[in-house]
Structures are given as C-alpha cells and as structure tokens.
Give the backbone structure.
Amino acid sequence: MIVLEKRPQPSQAWSLATPVLAVLATMLFGGLLFAVLGKNPVEAIRTIFWDPLFGEFAFYYRPQLLVKGAPLVLIAIGLSLGFKAGIWNIGAEGQYIMGALCGAGIGLAFYPLDAVYVFPLMVLGGAFGGWAWAMIPAILKVRFGTNEILVSLMLVYVAEQLLASMSLGLLKNPEGFGFPGSRNLNEYASATSWISQDIGMHWGVVAAFIAVIFAYVLLNRHMLGFHIRLTGDAPRAARFAGVRPARLILFCLGTSGLLAGLAGLFEVAGPAGQVSIDFNVGYGFTAIIVAFLGRLHPVGILLAAGLMALTYIGGEIAQSQLGLPAAAIQVFQGMLLFFLLALDVLTNYRIRMRMREVA
C-alpha cells in the first residue's frame, strides 16, 4: 500500500528540483498531447522552446521575451509577497485591468496634448487604479473578516465588465467608425512607454527589473520582509513578535494591486496600444503559475517569467507554423501548474510502501 508520510522538515532538495521536474513532465505529456492532435511532438517542443532563442528569427523574438515576461514579473512579484505571508490575492487580473483603464483614461483625457508629463501621470494613475481595486478585498478582510480569495476573484469579473463598458462607451474612439476600443495611445509619443519601438522594448521591462530588486531587498534586508516570511512560516510566532496582521494584509494586497496596475498600464500604453474589450489576456492568472514556479523568490520569478514568456512566443510560432490550436497551447501551459503542484507534494511528504494489514 502506497502512503504519504509527512516529512519532519520540508525537503530543500525537492523544493529546488520540483520546478525542473515539472518542466520536464510538461514537455513529456505536452508532446503526447501534440501527438494525439496529429503533430510531430519533437518538432512542436523544439518550436516552442528552441526557435524563439536560437531559431532563424531569434534576433526578433529575444527582445519579445522581455516584453512578454515584464507584466508577468511585475504581477508575480506582488503576488509572491502576499503568498509568503499566507495572504491569497487571486484577483490580480482585475487589478491589471483597472490599472490599464485608469492609466489610459488619464492619457486620453490629455489628448491630443503631447507633453512630457503625460506618461508619468499615466504611470501614477495605473498604479493607483490597481492599488485601489486591491484595497477592496483588503479592507473587507480587515474590517469584516471576509475571504480575500473569493472577493478578489469575483472582482475580476466586475473589472472585465467595466473594461467592456469603457471600450464601448466613455473611452471609445469617436473617430473609430463605431468599432469598440479607445484611441491608439502610441499616436502621441510622450504618452507611450516605448524605449525602442523597433525592437518592442518599453519601460515596463525596466520596472520589472526594479520590482525584482525591490522585493529581494525587502525580503532579505528589511524588518517588514522578515515579518512577511515569519507570518507565512509561523503565524502564531508572528503574533508574539509584534506583527500586526491588519497592516500586513493592507500592505501585501495593496502592493500586489499596485504592481498589477503598473503591468496593465505599461501593456496598454505599449504593446496593446489601446483599451479594447479583449485587452486582458490572462496575465493576472498566469502570474500565479510564475510565482509558484519561481518558488516565491524574486530571482526565481524572473527566471520563471522568462520560461512562461518562452511558451507564449513559442506557442504563437507553433500555431502559425505547425497549425496547433491556441487551446492546445493553453492546455500545455496549464500542465505546468498541474505538475508543479503535484510534484510539490513531495517537498513536504515522502512516499512509503506499507504492507496492508489483514483483518
């Protein structure tokens, strides 16, 4: 009889090996999925993981890895702070949307003014929009003890409806011939976030690296970071150490919302270029995978976001060159989280074989 036996201490070796094993298992079972769809599994895996880095057009795809990974890093860094403290913000997608709406709204309000201060104001608006949306579950949890998982998740659907409403109403382009969507923010240079539009680099990439450094310093060199780690590892000891749960909840949810809002702003002012009904592409949910794949460590999140960005770009190449359906690529990405969570059990438990007792 196979049983799971709890380890006295979590295994450090399994903790480090789990992400690598999860990636390998995803490649294996993803290849089987592609084979069932009638595609060459080896060619499909090579197209997803090799071509964006070393293929014929790798010089174009490599900068896109940074652009695709930047919003994932920003959101995942914010989520990881809360996850470490046992505060579960599952609604980053809604905060991402609200940051984009608030930031884009400021930029469109100044149209057609081309001034250097427009984009900084958009950045502040995006950060405030995400922060304010995250403070709803934070305040409700602190004041009434509500479940932040349910509240933040339900607010995603509210944000999606607001996005559709704005695309069809208040932010709709009056010169767009009736089509939903706002004006193109890239039409006036000072209101965009591009560093180099030729290679697709924008200021969100810089913000992502700054967020990684900020989180690393906070968690390893600041008392607040110690309180975050202590609360997640030993909540009872944290109370004796003088940690104030209400303040920690407000900080963690507020910071994750702020970073998600910034990610939305940089995306709408950069690659997307406008507010549209289908603006959100699931970065807020994918960042959850990135956070856990990176073991909630800032540097690990940076590497995990690069891997996830690789599956995004490689998946697009596989769709165009091999004819793989988009749903298959999404299943492939979902497998990564499934295997990560499944194998992560071995960090805290070991498998034992026992003889079944006979009555």
